Structure prediction request, 254 residues.
Amino acid sequence: MGREKELQGSLFAAVAFSLWGLLPIYWKLLNGVSAVEILSHRIIWSFLFTAGFLFFYGKVKSLHALFQDPRRMRFIALGAFFVSVNWLVYIWAVNNNQVVETSLGYYINPLVSFLIGVIVLGETTDKIKILSIILALGGVAVIAVGNGRLPWISLALAFSFALYGLMKKKAQADALPALALETALVTPLALFYILVTAGPGSAFGNAGVLVHFLLIFSGVATALPLFFFALATNRIPLSTLAFLQYLAPTINLI
Prediction:
């Protein structure tokens, strides 16, 4: 059963990171919309999408159970913060032609996730994995030095997502209710931006049909890989998950 669970987790992770690898194509279609507005729509529509599935599958009671668990609530709230930071930096970078630096960030991210898994969570590893991480670290260092400046976008992406993964491991909550709660916690801020800050000058309501569709569907594009990622974190160690994370930046660069 342990082997089957690990295989399931690896498959879920591969699906999640493959979807993330394809997402830059999606966000480039929205390059006329501000990063904060896209982020706000991602949050709002993700919440509606996951909440709809909660009701459809009759998992609302699971959401109530999370509210009554302060420990899990704390980790889910922190996870919501870290993933929101990750989304904002990522969308801004892609829409400002920083695709290479975003890819570098997601090459650094597995290194951070691996170290968190081993040092913070005490996960066991082997010499082959350690050697692989050292070689990867060397390669990333060469690219970063060649860039000629501190890759702040890359570091922000790497650490925010690695910390999000840590919060998911700590929470160990059912994937769908946890994801619905994550988005619910930041939805009021997103709504405030859309209704008050963005106002009549926002893309939503002023742009064409395609932009409206892309903004609404961004909820599915956001929630689906996060759902598979949550399923994976509940099944395999963070240090193992780290190696599968290389799928996303590799697909980004292709």
Observations:
- The chain has a mean pLDDT of 85.
- Residues 2-28 form the longest helix (27 residues).
- The chain has eleven helices and no strands.
- Residues 2-253 form one domain.
